[in-house]
UniProtKB/TrEMBL annotation, chain B:
Domain B12-binding N-terminal, chain residue ranges per copy: 10-103
Protein name: B12-binding domain-containing protein
Source species of the chain: Methanococcoides seepicolus
UniProt KW keywords: Cobalt, Metal-binding, Methanogenesis, Repeat
Top-rank lineage group of the source organism: Archaea
Length: 355, 227
């Protein structure tokens, strides 16, 4: 009987497979990315290396000394305190304490302050509190402290915002009205995100993390790119990280453009140059995990997409690695075996600059 | 099967193939004027049912494929569906009383379960089901369990689609299924589950009839279960 190795399904379930089956899944996952993105599949050597990483006998794996990359945490300031099923550990602590724990105990290289709603729009009425907390963090910490939130354009549509929900309008075949609603919401999003960061920059914030760009489709990305552009113009030294929500920009509007490029349908290697053009310092490529496929298939696919983005990008790429992305299973607290394997593959095969 | 993307229903000659391709291409262009013009030229040259099945519907199927591959998006699907509806409307007088492809394929109640505010994926599934010919009642997001039952009764639905995007709300899908049983509706109503944390294994575990990974698959699975 052939030796079987422990790995996982995309939903985290433990499974055992032979080396041959794992290799076949890596190849199939890579081929899927290559087909969709019209990009090169992984080479034989790269797939063999990934196979070695996945079948490594240890529970956790790591890169060689000297090959480490910077690690940034999103919403980490409230990860210690959070206890609402949002992957927090429920230990009462302020956001300052949470951030300092990440800096001094967990070895985070950068940190971000985030509000519990973690979207830009709800920050507007509490901007004074955010500025005060940011100032406290800056006075107590050494590592770069960014402000992070999601563009989350969904909050601008009914029932959460003033504009008619494009989904409802589409269903009623009001296509141009839906597109107008997205365009109007995007203009408000640009204004809000830029205003919030203007306030935070004035209290010493080191930069901004646009987290999950494109979550509400191409209007979401349109607003984010224009806000990045405005912030770069006003604050030449601001550090801007632009992380995506998914591998593909969904065309909820379908015809929005940035710098002459239609945003709908862009894959990570096509997103990277636009993000750089807008003025970001770091691009965060994303590849979604398929819960019905093995971690070998997902990692093969994810590394293929990310490698192409790294090659196409003129700015450093920090891959989005967490639950349900980057070849990691969709679990609230992703298992360390899968996280370390996916991280090692991203660094050594995709060539990411950070995580 | 309603769509025949790679051939003609019951066979067809070369002239008809060109006719069907023109109709199909017009739908893929997502332009209503092009579809109306193409139907105007094709009308009377082949049976209306064939013009719809082999031409317009084949084009709509191609739109679905392009949607799945990230080449076309929701607005394009809607424009194509709108264009196709206009084309079918022009052929209504030739369809007779049989109804043909224009009749509803089934009634589906679709919603995101209680506690989960995610909307977009479910909205896309609703739209694709509607574009495919189902009567869809989208009851929104964060929907209380009882509301699903009430809507199913009100619309005499054949199927319910349950969306959940978080591991913490996935259980809500099972709760709807349990309430369907309590109301004596489970044998009558098919159940489809979807959303990022859902899988085939979860569908079996919670007692659903199927799991759909994306909007295109939701259409295919709905047809499998209801037609």
């Amino acid at each position: 009987m052939a030796t079987e190795y422990f790995l996982r399904m995309g939903d985290g379930q433990k499974i055992f497979m032979t080396k041959e089956d794992i290799r076949a899944d890596i190849e199939a996952g890579s081929a899927d990315a290559a087909d969709l993105g019209d990009i090169p599949a992984l080479s034989e050597n790269e797939m063999e290396h990934m196979l070695d990483i996945i079948t490594s006998p240890g529970r956790i794996v790591g890169v060689e000394p000297g090959m480490e990359v910077p690690v940034t945490h999103d919403i980490g300031a409230i990860r210690i305190d959070g206890d609402q099923g949002n992957s927090g550990v429920g230990i009462p602590s302020s956001r300052l304490v949470g951030s300092m724990i990440h800096e001094r105990a967990f070895g985070a290289d950068t940190m971000e302050l985030g509000h519990i709603d973690y979207s830009y729009k709800p920050v507007k009425p509490v901007i004074s509190q955010e500025c005060q907390t940011m100032e406290s963090c800056q006075q107590n910490m050494i590592i770069p402290m960014l402000y992070g939130a999601m563009p989350n354009m969904g909050l601008y549509y009914t029932p959460d915002g003033p504009f008619e929900n494009p989904g409802d309008l589409m269903k009623a075949f009001k296509i141009s009205e839906a597109q107008d609603s997205i365009s109007h919401a995007a203009e408000h999003g640009i204004r809000d995100m830029t205003w919030i960061m203007q306030k935070l920059q004035n209290v010493g914030c080191d930069g901004v993390n646009f987290d999950t760009i494109g979550a509400a489709g191409d209007g979401d990305m349109y607003a984010s790119l224009h806000s990045i552009e405005a912030l770069r113009k006003e604050f030449p030294g601001i550090y801007i990280e632009a992380g995506m929500a998914g591998e593909l920009v969904l065309g909820m509007h379908g015809e929005l453009e940035y710098d002459g490029t239609v945003l709908a349908g862009l894959w990570p290697h096509q997103q990277a140059p636009l993000v750089a053009k807008a003025g970001a310092n770091i691009f965060g490529p994303v590849c979604n995990t398929n819960t019905s496929r093995t971690s070998a298939w997902n990692l093969g696919r994810s590394v293929t997409f990310t490698k192409a983005a790294v090659e196409a990008s003129t700015i450093p790429c920090h891959a989005d690695m967490g639950m349900g992305v980057g070849g990691i299973p969709m679990l609230e607290t992703p298992p360390i075996d899968a996280v370390t394997r996916a991280s090692k593959a991203m660094v050594e095969i995709a060539g990411v600059d950070g995580i | 099967m309603w769509f025949f993307p790679h051939g003609c229903k019951g066979g067809c000659n070369t002239a008809n193939e060109e006719l069907f391709k023109t109709l199909s291409d017009a739908v893929v262009s997502c332009k209503k004027d092009d579809v109306i013009a193409a139907v105007g030229k094709a009308k009377g040259k082949a049976p209306a049912v064939e013009l719809i099945d082999n031409g317009l519907a084949a084009g709509m199927n191609e739109v679905g494929v392009l949607f799945e591959r990230g080449k076309l998006f929701l607005p394009h699907v809607m424009m194509a569906a709108d264009a196709m509806s206009a084309g079918v409307e022009l052929l209504q007088d030739e369809l007779g009383s049989s109804g043909g492809a224009s009749s509803k394929l089934g009634v589906i109640v679709n919603g995101t379960v209680e506690g989960d505010v995610h909307d977009i994926g479910k909205a896309i599934v609703s739209t694709m089901l509607q574009a495919a010919g189902f009567e869809v009642h989208d009851i929104g997001r964060d929907v209380p369990v009882q509301n699903f039952i009430d809507k199913i009764k009100e619309t005499n639905a054949d199927m319910v689609g349950l969306s959940a995007l978080m591991t913490t709300t996935l259980q809500g899908q099972k709760e709807v299924i349990e309430l369907l049983k309590e109301n004596g509706l489970r044998d009558k109503v098919k159940v489809m589950v979807g959303g990022a944390p859902a899988t085939d294994a979860w569908a079996k575990k919670c007692g659903a009839d199927c799991y759909a990974e994306n909007a295109s698959e939701a259409v295919a699975k709905a047809k499998e279960l209801l037609l």
